[in-house]
Each structure stands twice: as C-alpha cells, then as structure tokens.
Specification:
Blueprint: H1 4-14, H2 19-41, H3 50-62, E1 66-70, E2 74-80, E3 83-93, H4 120-135, E4 142-150
Parallel strand pairs: 3-4
Antiparallel strand pairs: 1-2, 2-4
Helix pairs in contact: 2-4
The structure holds zinc ion (ZN).
Zinc ion (ZN) binds next to loops.
C-alpha cells in the first residue's frame, strides 16, 4: 500500500512529483481546463462568490469530501485518509477583479466589468483537481488533507474586522 502523504509531502516541498501522480494529474487536465473556463466565464467579486462557492461545494461533495462553508462564500473540504498521519492544508482563492475583459474567447467573462485577471479561476480549478486525485486514493491516504477555498482574497473579507483592512 502506498503511503500517499509520504510521497506527496516531499514532492510539495521540493517540487519532485512521483510519476504515477503526474500521470493521474495529466488525465485530469481536460476536466481542470473545463472547470477553469467555467469559473473564468462566471467571475465574481470579493464577498460575492455565490456561484463559485456553491459550485466548489457541490464538486467536492461529489468526490465524497466533507465540506462546510466559512467566511461568507468560502468552502473548506476535509478529506480524511484511511490511515493515521499528519494534516496538510492546501489553500486557494476564488474571487475576481473589477476589470472589463478585452479578449474575445469562448469562455470570456459573462459578468460585465468583472474578470478573472489574477488567476483565481485557475487556482480554483487546480485545487479541485488535487481534491479529485487525492479523494480517489482515500484508502491509501496517510493523514488528512484540508482544502481551503478562500473568498475575498482581492478585497477585504466582509467580517466584523473589515474596517481594519479598508
Ligand atoms: Zn489575486
């Protein structure tokens, strides 16, 4: 039985990814591109990531990952491996910027004046890809992986402390 985190942690730290993970990730690429284009076409500003958060939540649940909502539209997914081990968190951000998209591609922004110009569409899609890959290996997973989908990275998180970062 492979000890997944034993491979994954050093890989994350030193950039060397085992061949079998690269192969499985390659197979996920078309799905990740599809998610990325969907998020790109539906950008949402900070604290307004309603569709994005709901979609992330739904997709994670589809992998059998426990989820809960935090910080407004944020999502936390928890994948508990079958074997004991450390807890590792992978974080990304979901919000877009108040920029009008000027490029005409089939997946261009459908939200006037709002655009994923900072790559958070790709971040969201890539973390979903990682979640799908790791969830498929839950029985071999040593430890727990927490997936953090952070809202309002570009702006100020709409909380009681919002005045502190205005
Ligand atoms: Zn950003």
């Amino acid at each position: 039985m492979r000890a997944l985190t034993a491979f994954l942690l050093p890989a994350l730290l030193c950039g060397q990814v085992p061949a079998w993970i690269r192969q499985e990730a390659s197979k996920l690429q078309p799905q990740v591109v599809e998610w990325r284009r969907d998020f790109h076409a539906h950008p949402e500003l900070s604290n307004r990531e309603v569709r994005t958060g709901a979609k992330v939540d739904e997709i994670l649940k589809g992998f059998g990952i426990e989820t809960r909502r935090i910080a407004g539209h944020g999502v936390v997914g928890v994948l508990k491996g079958a074997l004991p081990g450390p807890v590792v968190a992978l974080r990304e951000d979901m919000d877009a910027l108040p920029i009008q998209e000027a490029v005409d591609v089939p997946w261009k922004s459908t939200n006037p004046g709002v655009m994923h110009a900072c790559g958070h569409d790709a971040h969201s899609a890539m973390l979903l890809g990682a979640a799908k890959l790791l969830a498929a290996h839950q029985a071999e997973l040593k430890g727990t992986v927490v997936f953090l989908f952070q809202p309002a990275e570009e702006g100020c998180l709409n909380t009681r402390r919002a005045a502190l970062c205005a």
